[in-house]
Amino acid sequence: MLRIGELSRRSGVSPELLRAWERRYGLLRPTRSAGGLRLYSADDVDRVRTMQQHLAHGVAPAEAAALVSRAAPAAAPAGPSPDAALAELAAALSDFDEPRAQAVVDRLLSTWTLDALLADVVLPYLEDLGERWARGDASVAEEHFASAVVRGRLLGLARDWGRGIGPLALLACLPGEQHEFGLIAFGLALRARGWRIAYLGSDSPLETVESAAHALEPAFVVLSATTDDRVDPVANELKPFARRRRLALGGKAFEKAPQDLRALLLPDGPVEAADELTSLQEEEEGG
């Protein structure tokens, strides 16, 4: 496994251009060391060299990257399809069978990436559960049981996510916001990219977030909300907060930011949001 400097030396492409190709076109597929460093494989070296060959023949960068990707498509997750895995988890939880639900997750984690588990199974299941509960197709007992099992498992995966040497993100839901699954999943996706996480959870008063930020000095404070009624009461407080701290906002309530708020709006989906925040942090660190 190679660090980006060695990849640059072997390929003759500057680290800055390699990072741009990775960010814009998904050309490289690094993993993370235990300390959070991005590591590249021999396959990444081959992809860079193939990219260079296409560019040398006058192919535009975006088209060249697409040609490289089509020549070596990413492998699909091993094991069951996302639909089958989702159905299996849903069946276990609807039967109030925690051991079987835990076994499903264990099996998926043995063959899938954490990103795939979150994006293709856990969050789609929770969204479907919420919709069924709203329609009256899921009982209160099923909703409470399934939510407790999933939350417990996600926080189990989050154990020790504050350790390491990577940048620190402070995560919290706005006051009154109880929906925290997306924020937990986002924290797990960040952790997989080398971040350290300080998690305040649901219904966090802004003064509490400010106090924690003052003590921890995180690289980013990330606030989450799902509905406008959580944002409107604190909109005026968010503006001075954003001047004091590097602020990122996630959740459906932040499809557009309050006017004049200097904050990063994260994309939908915890994996995509983690990628964007990580890319921004790496650009600013120069590494």
- CATH superfamily descriptor of the largest domain: Cobalamin-binding domain
Beta-strand percentage range? 5-15%
Q: What is the C-level CATH assignment of the largest domain? A: Alpha Beta
How can the largest sheet be summarized? 5 strands, parallel
Provide a count of the helices.
13
The CATH topology of the largest domain? Rossmann fold
Number of strands: 7
Helical content class: 55-70%
User: For the terminal residues, how far apart are their CA atoms?
Assistant: 17 Å
Task: Report the mean per-residue pLDDT as an integer.
Answer: 87
Structural class: alpha/beta
- CATH architecture name of the largest domain: 3-Layer(aba) Sandwich
Order of helices and strands: HHEEHHHHHHEHEHEHHEEH
Highlighted features:
alpha/beta; 7 strands; Methyltransferase, Methionine Synthase (B12-binding Domains), Chain A, domain 1; 3 domains; Rossmann fold; Multidrug-efflux Transporter Regulator, Chain: A, Domain 2; five-stranded parallel sheet; globular; two-stranded antiparallel ribbon
Written overview of the protein:
This protein has three domains: 4-71, Multidrug-efflux Transporter Regulator, Chain: A, Domain 2 (Orthogonal Bundle); 82-157, Methionine synthase domain (Methyltransferase, Methionine Synthase (B12-binding Domains), Chain A, domain 1, Orthogonal Bundle), CATH 1.10.1240.10; 168-285, Cobalamin-binding domain (Rossmann fold). Mean pLDDT is 87; it is low at 73-77. It has helices at residues 4-11, 15-25, 42-56, 61-71, 82-94, 98-111, 114-135, 140-157, 181-192, 206-216, 228-231, 235-244, 270-285; strands spanning 31-32, 38-39, 168-173, 196-201, 220-224, 247-250, 264-265. It has a five-stranded parallel β-sheet with strand order 4-3-5-6-7, with helices on both faces. Strands 1-2 form a two-stranded antiparallel sheet. The longest helix is centred in the middle third of the chain and has 22 residues, at 114-135. The protein contains 13 helices and seven strands. With 287 residues, it is an alpha/beta fold. Strand 1 (31-32) and strand 2 (38-39) form a beta hairpin.
